Amino acid sequence: MQEKKKGEPSHETSAYERSAEEIICLDMLKEEIMHSSNYIARANTVSKNCIYSFFCVFLLYFNCIVGTIIKDIFALNVKAYDDTYEDEKSLHISKVEALIHCSMECLNQNRCVSYFYNGVSNTCILHEDPFTYTIRSQSGAGWKFYITIITDSGRCKPDFFYYRYLDLCYKFGVAINATDSTITTICSEPNEDLVRVDSEERQSYIETITADIGLVYKIAICIQGTSMLNSSHQWTFNDGTRMPYSKWAKGQPDANGTFIRMFRSYKYKWYSLVDDNMCSYICEYKYNDSI
Ligand SMILES: *[C@@H]1O[C@H](CO)[C@@H](O)[C@H](O)[C@H]1NC(C)=O
Ligand SMILES: *[C@@H]1O[C@H](CO)[C@@H](O)[C@H](O)[C@H]1NC(C)=O
Ligand SMILES: *[C@@H]1O[C@H](CO)[C@@H](O)[C@H](O)[C@H]1NC(C)=O
């Protein structure tokens, strides 16, 4: 990995340090935030956060042993996004004293999924977008990007994003050749399914987080829906329940099927095309009431 400049301590990570590297963790039980980023943990002569970082390294180490890590919230620094940021469509922009306060602001805002923080200007920008399929239009020295990973009580999985505002735990999938048979092979882990777009808010959230997906996949996005469960072939979710919301294009649905294609190039309208065609997809991790 490439070494960064701007006064950061160098990273000669041992196995122990790697486990705590660039992670901010929150102990939800104590409702306080603690830094365990390698950067802050080592900058103990300059940072007033060093007391937190020390505790967090300790806490993480402890958690790894006793396996209580799922009770914590983490924010992971995505190094590939260093020195870029986005200030359009943000939830909130503020000046803060330190990274810890930016993290706290994100935690306290249930639409917050990620944040950019600039340690030079102490600027904090909160977003509801994980920036997987949206571009970061700005660049500048000192910006770092953090994505939250909230696995509290098993509600969400570590490799999924959690949008607390809509209680949506989701993951993006690659392009597949979508047919009734291939669609059953994706999102097939326990409690996973294609994303259920059951409200205007979910529809518009998906539109937000995939705004630039066309740069990667110029194809449809597959979402949940089937006409094969209802005796009169009406479209339902995969558990047979009625869809409270839909955004079918004019004349749609005009075919039976086991998934729905959402076309970004047609204002994200829904289509029930039967012909073999590619789509990328979004998986949802369903809440399991029995936990
Ligand atoms: C998808 O699969 C079908 C059947 O296997 C094939 O005929 C079709 O060409 C494939 N489409 C693409 C875009 O690969
Ligand atoms: C399924 O079909 C029945 C009639 O066969 C209809 O009364 C019912 O409303 C349909 N259910 C849904 C969820 O669309
Ligand atoms: C769905 O399948 C049923 C049964 O084969 C058929 O009667 C119906 O016309 C089909 N619907 C569409 C829109 O193709």
From TrEMBL:
* Source species: Mytilus edulis
Judging by the UniProt lineage, the source's domain of life is: Eukaryota
Q: Indicate the segments forming the C-type lectin domain, all copies.
A: 165-284
What SMART domains has UniProt attached to this entry? CLECT
Please give the InterPro entries that the UniProt record associates with this protein.
C-type_lectin-like, C-type_lectin-like/link_sf, CTDL_fold
Segments traversing the membrane: 50-70
Which SUPFAM superfamilies does UniProt cross-reference here?
A: C-type lectin-like
Alphabetized, the UniProt keywords read: Membrane, Transmembrane, Transmembrane helix
User: What is the recorded name of this protein?
Assistant: C-type lectin domain-containing protein
